[in-house]
Amino acid sequence: MRNPLPHILLSLLLLAGFACQGGRESLAPFWAKIDSIMPTRPDSALRLLRDKANERFTKADRARYLLLRTEAEDKTYVTPTTDSLIAIAAHYYEESDNERLKAKAWYYMGRVNQELKRPLLAQDYYLKALRHQTLVDDHALLGRVCNHLGMLYTYQDVYERAIPYQKEAIRHFALIGDSTGQAFATRDLARNFHMTNQPDSAIFYYRLAEKRMGSRAIQSIYAELGSLYTDIGRYDEAASYLRKVREEEGDFSYDLIRGQFYLETNRLDSAEFYLRPCLNDGKTKAAATYYLAHLAYARADYRACAELQRAYEILQDSIVGQKQTESIRKTEALYRHQEMRQALNEQALLIAHREKERYLYALLCVLLALACLALHRRWRNTREAAQRREEEMARTFERQRQSDRRQIADNERQIATLRDQIDRLDNERTTKWERQKLQLEKQLLETSNALLSNEEERRDAAIAGLLESDVYKRFHDKPTQRPRSEDWEALERLLDETYNQFTCRLKELAPLSDVEIKACLLTKIGLGANQITNTLNYNSSVLRKRIYKKLFKREGTVEDLKRFIEKF
């Protein structure tokens, strides 16, 4: 029986070649270096990451690389063109247990899609980043996520939903002592209170933002506070804040606020001075026209007031049209968003299917390896059993051969003795009858020696033929198959030819049943106890003890019967 193990091992090596990758040097020190310089020197981090662009990464390292690359590009204001690369990192970390990197990956998916003008997708990704925020111990990251989500709602004019996220952003920035983050998030929160007609809350948060910024307070806070105080008729406070706003050429939004303030305080010439330039900017033209119409009315210039009012209505119609167009675009964006969500779901299903296939391949490899080990063990056991049988038969043959040779040597000694006796009788002139008797005994012994020599040669040839016979191999190589009647007949005939009518002589000793005869035949060809049990469907130990008792009229063991059968 040929050993199948080399072929099986070759197959396993080929499978392993497809499934495995060689070891690589750990990139942990490199990632640690990038993380350390990212907050203060993102441009240096981006340069180092670009140098690694052609590196062959493991799946985990590739996800880490793409996440850090996206972070560095976002911090250095590199405009993205696609979200396909950060999507690889996001989907990898979605299957991991690292909640911080998972949230970070979804945050940058949101940032990229926000830059790509996909607000609905960006909103989804920001919300995904906050799914398990209680498990994320990174308040800087959570603060940025909440702040960007609030700003996204603000840009979409959904001010009420922006407010709780901006409050949460302020809380996270406060936990890490980030005064700048708190200041800007507070300003954005004040804007939303202003837009939702909550002036007291808006004033509180504008002043809080001003306090947190200190000397770094920006012009927009002063201007927005001036506008807010003007809206609620608190002109002294409005004037104090508007005086802090620097007059910069071309900054029409601040001029519009000043013009509104002077109009409300009945300083019409100053109001016109600031409002007229605002007609040159598309963002402030409609509001400036509206305020100038009121200014003309205050001057009793009704004709100019009517013309400005008509111009304002035309601009309003244009603004309404733009809003309708924007509404259509938002609707289309919603449909695109749904299509993209469906595509993402399909991609997630595909990834899950591939993961399932990978686990299945691993399971198949394990099962194949176990099957190979089982086959190898069975082949080894079969080979060892065959070797034991051959060694046992060789010992039996050698014992028989030694017995025959001792008999021949004993006969030779008797022949020599008879020859000496015949020679003495010749010298002593004994009777003819005595000499013939001795001569006959000598011839009988010589014939016996010749027969023993011939029997040894015949037996060696017969045993060699038995070991090479098909019926012998059939019983040894296929012990689990039930033999046919012709197989039993062939085995009985072969053993009778090899061992001098083995079956006939056995039947003469005791009245054995058919199954007992078969047990003796199988014992003679060296089958083990389990093989005999499987072949006969009968407990071989019980059966062979019963055979021994029938043959010798006393109790005996299986080994006693085996020794008898080997010599019989």
TrEMBL record:
Subcellular location: Cytoplasm
Keyword presence, Coiled coil: yes
Main location group: cytoplasm
InterPro entries assigned: Bac_ResReg_Asp_Phosphatase, TPR-like_helical_dom_sf, TPR_rpt
A single cellular component GO annotation: cytoplasm
Residues forming coiled coils: 401-455
Transmembrane segments: 359-379
SMART domains in the cross-refs: TPR (SM00028)
Family indicated by similarity: Belongs to the Rap family.
The protein, known as: Tetratricopeptide repeat protein
Organism: Candidatus Parabacteroides intestinipullorum
Taxonomy of the source species: Bacteria, Pseudomonadati, Bacteroidota, Bacteroidia, Bacteroidales
